[in-house]
């Protein structure tokens, strides 16, 4: 089963689209996040959910 961790970013009404795009691009490039959901609320506030896959490394069996 695939597991994800999530991060929520909020942007105020006054932010320009280029500033929002720059912030999301930086998260995607350097933090390996992908866009999951975006929601625009009344009043212009925008909330964006980012996600990335959690990779679990199995522990090796110990040989005694």
How would you describe this protein?
The protein is an alpha+beta fold and 64 residues long. The chain contains one helix and three strands; from the N terminus they run E-H-E-E. The protein has one helix spanning 17-31, and strands spanning 3-11, 34-40, 46-54. The longest helix is centred in the middle third of the chain and has 15 residues, at 17-31. The protein is elongated and about 65 Å long. The mean pLDDT is 92.
Give keywords.
64 residues, alpha+beta, Cell Cycle, Chain A, 3-stranded antiparallel β-sheet, 1 helix, 3 strands, 39% strand, elongated
CATH architecture: 2-Layer Sandwich
Count of strand segments? 3
What is the terminal separation in angstroms?
31 Å
Q: What fraction, in percent, of the residue positions are helical? A: 10-25%
- Kindly provide the radius of gyration, computed on alpha-carbon positions and rounded to a whole number of angstroms: 17 Å
Q: Which shape, going by the Cα principal axes?
A: elongated
* Helix and strand run: EHEE
Q: How big a fraction of the residues is strand? A: 35-45%
Task: Count structural domains.
Answer: 1
Structural class: alpha+beta
Spatial strand sequence of the major β-sheet: 1-3-2
Mean pLDDT: 92
Low-confidence stretches: none
> How is the CATH topology named?
Cell Cycle, Chain A
CATH class: Alpha Beta
* Alpha plus pi helix count: 1
Largest sheet: 3 strands, antiparallel
């Amino acid at each position: 089963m695939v597991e994800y961790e999530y991060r929520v970013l909020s942007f105020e009404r006054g932010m320009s689209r280029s500033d929002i795009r720059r912030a999301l691009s930086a998260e995607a490039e350097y933090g390996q996040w992908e866009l999951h959901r975006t929601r625009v609320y009344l009043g212009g506030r925008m909330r964006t959910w980012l996600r990335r896959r959690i990779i679990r490394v199995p522990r090796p069996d110990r040989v005694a």
